[in-house]
Inverse folding.
């Protein structure tokens, strides 16, 4: 439903954004005591499993969070009573476990407990590994430039069918040329094949906005003024060398690139063929892009957590503030017995299906497959 | 108490006769609401009711009757009362040269004299003088200039009264309930000023004939239509919309009609600039207000009125949303005897919205929601004697809630996930008496007994009412109810009482107590009330809201009623107030009841009012000092928190200056304390997402709001006038909200979080409108 509201808000904004305006303001905020933040999203793969412990930080402290080191971290498979000890050899708050013998981590339909002991306080949590939906295909559809998109582009669509039975929940993660599309507005989650529990859209192909949710739309960067809409342009000059972290955008006739203004018409910039250099990692899909999609099975509680994260981080701009809900804490499934001790974060273990394709003739279709 | 009152009437054995009739406007035949009839010899009298009818029963004799109404010339009649008499009078409007600007009130000293308190009343002539957004005269926006009435901000639907929510106001258009009183979100109200005759807002001391909402009753009455001559009037607004009203007699003196319509034309004006592929897009609204009446004979009169309005937002032919109200009211006034006036009303109200996305038939999502209300109301006014006027009545309302008719299609596979229709019946019986005890003391007392029945069919869920976790609750049991099976019922007794004690002819003190109950609830967890907000009946999980309010006021007029002043204080406590779990799914959620929390509310405040109602310069100052809070288990750790619409200071100044017959100037100034805001106290990073950790609910405030508007009206000849308006004269970017989010330009691991202040209308907004009257 969140998406529907976003759409609703965008529609409304078409007519009304012209008169609303925004200013970035300074605001005095009280900061609470730092609390432990648990980032424990394990995967049913052969790869190294990671649990990252950090501390919360003041809201306006735009730095990487401080890591929590010196903790004892273990995961227990409850049915078999198997204990997996996570170690932090580099003392940087990243606690890891490498599955032995190339076996995937975890057993399907098993329950897992997490126990963290830090500074004498025990934190714990529970989760469950369930199977995920299989990806059938990923396709792309050509989209001619229009008012919103100033160049031709492709939108992607992932085809997968929800598993039978109600209450299957998924997190669909997308990667463009190896870069995880990590903007809050790109959180793509499904409850059965649809948006929420109430819809009961069981054992169907994921519904449309979820299917195309793998696409990095320019709206994901809320447009505050018309020139921002052009951020999706991939304008690269042959002679300029970029690192993958470089970015730029067009303001009037000027291409602003890593804060260096290049005073030339943006039309002078063309893309380097065959070389995956991008102004922004999440510009619109173009031919030659490598797109990876993963469908993670998550627990309904994890679905709600991601739903809440999206709710709290996608703050609609301008007129759409009418649709905003009051800020409130995101849920957590980490607990402690110590009264009044805050904790945040989440513990989940996912089964993953994935597919990697290139945007090229074979994957580009202009019709919905039968 | 009632026996006592009626007893008094009968115990007086002396023979009495009744003077009764209608008071009308001499120009157009419209009945006048609240006109005063005085018998000078007895120093007693009466006031016309909402249908313009009065009745006074006195001993036989020769009397001088004086009919008065502000803005009209008084009429004096000598009568020799030897039998019951029906006297209908028509008051001529004050001639142009003598015209005083009418501000508020019906009789000049009504504010001191009447038992009513906590009432905000605006004459349409006054409303027309107030500088309005884009020059469009607006009933609801004008009410917000009066004490005790506020709003969360520009563009928000509805209004807040004495700390109540938008859904706690009963908005009646010719008695039919209107579920959404706004066009274009909240920029304009649905009431076409050309068709509105009278607007009255009850904030407290609510008479027993009204019920069903906690905070207020907004009673809007439409014009009947000119019964003397054909009249066409309207306005052309630049740049939003135009309106036209046609009215006139159908059968002279017997039947008349009015049809008034408005349409916005932003879409038409901007169409040439649209690219081809969004040609089918649209952004428009329109409304049509119609009324006709037929004067069958001296004892019977019927009215038929209707409103149809719609807002349409379309992205293309298949995608978009729209909403609208439709109402129809049939009324029959019947005079049983000179002392017994009856009104029977039958009305239907239909509110619906629909929403559709999906570019093809193969992939779409369509959602429709609707509330149908059928209502029957019978009221009798019994004018026992000049000291007692009894009102009694019954009312039955049937609601049909269709919260969601939803169709989802994914690659041609469709699924209907509509929610069950909910039916319920609200019924009430009431009795009240206006009792003039002495010249100094008058009372109005009554009681309303209300009931609510919630019926199947559909799934009936049961949720744990003790779960105070603040998380969405799952049902602990579920069963299927048969059609019309009674699932839950509620009953409430609502006492109503008010008094007025007059120390001197220009000084009175008034007090009131009322209990209100509300059986249907507006479910909304967004900052502003939206057209898509869901209404839900009380169910086995959601109990009716109940509020008790006491108010006390002092009313004093100066210089022969030139200046009116009042101060009122109120205290209100309410139960079963709705709030929502974090992440509540308001739409298309069969378990909605599990996402709704219930708690207590309290609101208190003081309202000051000073008005100058006569002379070339008129206007008023209103100031409200208020507080409104909620305490809900599962929200804000169970502690009290201010509501989103809590405003500590709310001050307004409205002035009108009539320079000469050609020019008229108006201004208003608004100052409001910033509305509450919830602040983050930190941030956490999980899965590369940085999200806020949140502090106490609504503990901070956005910056204060202030705005100055001016307007000038230029009267060009008899048929035309031009209104120039400048809204937000000094172009303040008044904050609507402040939100905390990631800077969208921040990448590479570390989120850059920031605070953004939003102004909905951040600039000077000039407008011109041309009004005509033929």
């Amino acid at each position: 439903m969140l998406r529907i509201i976003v759409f609703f808000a965008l529609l409304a904004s078409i007519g009304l954004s012209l008169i609303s305006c925004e200013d970035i303001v300074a605001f005095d905020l009280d900061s609470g005591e730092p609390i432990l933040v648990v980032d424990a999203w394990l995967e049913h793969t052969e790869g190294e499993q990671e649990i990252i412990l950090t501390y919360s930080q003041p809201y306006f402290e735009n730095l990487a969070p401080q890591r929590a080191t010196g903790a004892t971290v273990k995961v227990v498979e409850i049915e078999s009573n198997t204990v997996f000890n996570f170690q932090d050899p580099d003392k940087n708050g990243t606690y890891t476990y490498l599955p032995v013998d190339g076996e995937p981590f975890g057993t399907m339909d098993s329950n897992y407990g997490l126990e963290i002991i830090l500074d004498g306080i025990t934190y714990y949590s529970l989760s469950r590994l369930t199977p995920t939906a299989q990806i059938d295909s990923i396709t792309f559809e050509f989209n001619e430039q229009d008012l919103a998109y100033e160049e031709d582009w492709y939108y992607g669509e992932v085809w997968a069918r929800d598993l039978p039975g109600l209450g299957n929940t998924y997190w669909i993660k997308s990667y463009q040329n190896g870069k995880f599309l990590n903007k809050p507005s790109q959180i793509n989650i499904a409850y059965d094949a649809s948006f929420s529990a109430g819809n009961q859209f069981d054992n169907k192909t994921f519904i449309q906005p979820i299917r195309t949710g793998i696409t990095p739309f320019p709206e994901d960067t809320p447009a505050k003024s018309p020139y921002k809409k052009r951020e999706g342009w991939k304008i690269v000059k042959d002679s300029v060398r970029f690192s993958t972290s470089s970015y730029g955008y067009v303001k009037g006739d000027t291409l602003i690139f890593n804060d260096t203004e290049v005073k030339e018409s943006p039309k002078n910039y063309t893309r380097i063929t065959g070389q995956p250099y991008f102004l922004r990692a999440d510009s619109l899909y173009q031919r030659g892009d490598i797109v990876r999609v993963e469908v993670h099975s998550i627990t309904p509680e994890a679905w709600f957590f991601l739903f809440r994260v999206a709710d709290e981080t996608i703050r609609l701009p301008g007129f759409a503030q009418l649709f905003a809900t009051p800020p409130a804490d995101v849920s957590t499934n980490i607990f402690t017995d110590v009264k009044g001790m805050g904790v945040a974060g989440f513990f989940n273990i996912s089964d993953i299906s994935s597919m990697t394709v290139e945007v090229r003739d074979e994957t580009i279709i202009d019709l919905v497959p039968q | 108490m009632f026996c006592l009152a009626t007893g008094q009437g009968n115990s007086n054995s002396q023979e009495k006769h009744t003077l009764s009739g209608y008071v009308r406007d001499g120009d157009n035949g419209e009945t006048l609401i609240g006109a005063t009839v005085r018998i000078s010899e007895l120093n007693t009298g009466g006031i016309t009711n909402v249908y313009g009818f009065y009745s006074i029963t006195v001993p036989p004799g020769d009397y001088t009757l004086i009919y008065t109404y502000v803005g009209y010339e008084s009429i004096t009649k000598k009568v020799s009362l030897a039998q019951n008499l029906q006297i209908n009078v028509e008051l001529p409007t004050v001639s142009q040269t003598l015209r005083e600007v009418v501000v508020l009130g019906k009789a000049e000293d009504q504010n001191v004299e009447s038992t009513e308190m906590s009432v905000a009343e605006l004459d349409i002539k006054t409303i027309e003088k107030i500088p309005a957004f884009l020059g469009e005269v607006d009933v609801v926006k004008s009410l917000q200039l009066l004490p005790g009435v506020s709003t969360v901000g520009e563009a928000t639907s509805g209004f807040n009264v004495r700390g109540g929510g938008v859904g706690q106001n009963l908005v009646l258009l010719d008695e039919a309930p209107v579920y959404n009183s706004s066009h274009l979100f909240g920029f304009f109200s649905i009431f076409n000023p050309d068709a509105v005759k009278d607007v009255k807002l009850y904030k407290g001391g609510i008479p027993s004939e009204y019920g069903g909402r906690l905070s207020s009753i907004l009673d809007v009455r439409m014009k009947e239509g000119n019964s003397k001559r054909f009249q066409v009037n309207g306005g052309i607004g630049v740049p939003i919309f135009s309106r036209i009203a046609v009215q006139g007699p159908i059968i002279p003196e017997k039947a008349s009609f009015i049809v008034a319509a408005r349409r916005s034309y932003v879409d038409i004006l901007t169409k040439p600039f649209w690219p081809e592929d969004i040609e089918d897009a649209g952004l428009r609204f329109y409304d049509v207000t119609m009324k006709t009446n037929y004067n069958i004979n001296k004892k019977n009169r019927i009215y038929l009125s209707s409103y149809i309005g719609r807002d349409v937002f379309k992205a293309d032919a298949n995608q978009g949303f729209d909403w609208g109200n439709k109402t129809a009211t049939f009324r029959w006034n019947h005079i049983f005897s000179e002392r017994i006036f009856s009104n029977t009303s039958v009305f239907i109200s239909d509110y619906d919205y629909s929403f559709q996305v999906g570019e093809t038939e193969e992939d779409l999502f369509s959602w429709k929601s609707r509330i149908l209300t059928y209502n029957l109301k019978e009221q009798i006014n019994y004018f026992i004697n000049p000291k007692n006027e009894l009102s009694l009545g019954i009312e039955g309302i049937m609601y049909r809630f269709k919260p969601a008719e939803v169709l989802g299609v994914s690659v041609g596979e469709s699924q209907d996930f509509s929610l069950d229709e909910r039916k319920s019946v609200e019924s009430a019986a009431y009795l009240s008496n206006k009792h003039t005890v002495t010249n100094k003391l008058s009372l109005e007392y009554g009681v309303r007994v209300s009931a609510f029945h919630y019926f199947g069919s559909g799934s009936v869920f049961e949720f744990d009412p003790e779960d105070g976790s603040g998380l969405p609750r799952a049902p602990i049991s579920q069963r299927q109810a048969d059609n019309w099976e009674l699932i839950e019922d509620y009953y409430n007794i609502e006492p109503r009482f008010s008094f007025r004690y007059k120390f001197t002819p220009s000084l009175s003190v008034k007090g009131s107590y009322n209990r209100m109950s509300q059986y249907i609830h507006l479910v909304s967890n967004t900052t502003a009330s939206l057209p898509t907000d869901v209404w839900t009946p009380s169910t086995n999980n959601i109990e009716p809201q109940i509020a008790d309010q006491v108010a006390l006021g002092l009313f004093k007029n100066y210089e022969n009623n030139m200046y009116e002043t009042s101060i009122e204080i109120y205290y209100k406590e309410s139960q079963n107030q709705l709030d929502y779990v974090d992440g509540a799914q308001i739409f298309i959620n069969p378990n909605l009841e599990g996402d709704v929390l219930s708690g207590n509310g309290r609101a208190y405040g003081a309202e000051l009012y000073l008005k100058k109602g006569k002379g070339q310069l008129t206007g008023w100052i209103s100031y409200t000092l208020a507080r409104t809070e909620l305490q809900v288990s599962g929200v804000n750790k169970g502690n009290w928190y201010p509501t989103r619409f809590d405003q500590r200071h709310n001050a307004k100044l409205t002035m009108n200056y009539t320079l000469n017959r050609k020019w008229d100037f108006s201004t208003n100034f608004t100052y409001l304390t910033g509305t509450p805001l919830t602040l983050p106290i930190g941030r956490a990073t999980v899965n590369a997402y940085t999200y806020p950790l949140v502090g106490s609910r609504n503990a901070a405030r956005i910056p204060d709001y202030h705005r100055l508007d001016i307007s000038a009206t230029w009267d060009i000849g008899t048929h035309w006038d031009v209104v120039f308006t400048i809204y937000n004269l000094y172009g303040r970017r008044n904050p609507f909200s402040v939100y905390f989010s990631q800077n969208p330009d921040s990448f590479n691991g570390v989120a850059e979080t920031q605070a953004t202040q939003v102004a909905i209308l951040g600039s000077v907004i000039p407008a011109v409108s041309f009004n005509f009257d033929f």
